[in-house]
Design a protein that fits this description.
About 35% of the residues are buried. The strands form 3 sheets. A 6-stranded parallel β-sheet has the order 2-7-1-8-9-12. It has a 4-stranded mixed β-sheet with strand order 4-3-6-5. It is an alpha/beta fold. Strand 10 (about 195) and strand 11 (about 200-205) form a beta hairpin. It has a domain at about 10-40 and about 100-240: Rossmann fold (3-Layer(aba) Sandwich), CATH 3.40.50.300. Helices cover about 35% and strands about 20% of the residues. It comes from Chytriomyces confervae. One of its GO terms (cellular component) is cytosol. Belongs to the guanylate kinase family. This is Guanylate kinase.
């Protein structure tokens, strides 16, 4: 199965360890641009957590249903963790694109690898914790993880951060602890300005408004001066949310 032509610009692929704060970043992005972005709702065989609605957080399916979708080549990418299956379907991405919105995907490391092998032309953003110790504290603070699951998640997190260190993502965000998360919105706006350069890795548009209008015309222009000076020779950009 192939994906339909993108009419709303390149998808935004967010990845990072479980518990790092990706959901918070995405909620604020959607709140800022409710008519511009759409979330690609993944399928999973795990049960819903408190407050998770079917078709919103995930499409919750049985193992048999997931296997049937896999057999039908319905997934762009899929993975397993802690005995549960997760997958992003072609249909989920197309649903967002058909209404003219920028598709946002939240995937694991294997998903990043799979999507890089497609023609989606996505922008890749990696969200990492300040440290493994900080991530462990966040996971324990959830109150939903067993010791075994925490150990598995921390091991997976280290592997993801090692992978990110190879420069495969367009932008790396170090997500800190500030209660004032408004800055996160500006960071995600800046993430969108990263464009590949044939000669110098990642380059950054000096005119944010012009870039946003040209690439995602339905996204409101960012406030003047929100794009910081950057080294255009940098292979990747790391911004700490303090």
């Amino acid at each position: 199965m192939s994906i339909s032509p993108i009419v709303s610009g390149p998808p935004l692929v967010i990845s990072g360890p479980s518990g790092v704060g990706k959901s918070t970043l995405l909620k604020r992005l959607f709140a800022k641009y409710p008519s511009s972005f759409g979330f690609s709702v993944s399928h999973t065989t795990r049960g819903p957590r408190p407050g998770e609605a079917n078709g919103v957080a995930y499409n919750f399916v049985s193992a048999e249903e997931f296997a049937g979708l896999l057999e039908a080549n319905a997934f762009i990418e899929h993975t397993q963790f802690a005995g549960n299956s997760y997958g992003t379907s072609f249909a989920a991405v197309e649903t967002v694109q058909k209404v003219g919105r920028i598709c946002v995907l939240d995937v694991e490391m294997s998903g990043v690898r799979a999507i890089k092998g497609t023609s989606l032309g996505a922008k890749f953003v990696f969200v990492r914790p300040p440290s493994i110790a900080d991530l462990e504290r966040r996971l324990r603070g959830r109150g939903t993880e067993t010791e075994e699951t925490i150990a598995k998640r921390l091991g997976a997190a280290q592997a993801e951060m090692d992978y990110a260190d190879t420069g495969v993502h367009d932008v790396i965000i170090v997500n800190g602890e500030s209660e004032d998360k408004a800055f996160e919105l500006r960071i995600l706006q800046m993430c969108m300005t990263a464009t590949p350069s044939l000669t110098s890795g990642i380059s950054f548009c000096s005119d944010l408004d012009a870039f946003v209008r040209a690439t995602w015309p339905q996204v409101a222009a960012a406030p003047a001066g929100s794009l910081p000076a950057t080294d255009k020779k940098a292979k990747k950009w790391s911004c700490t949310i303090l």
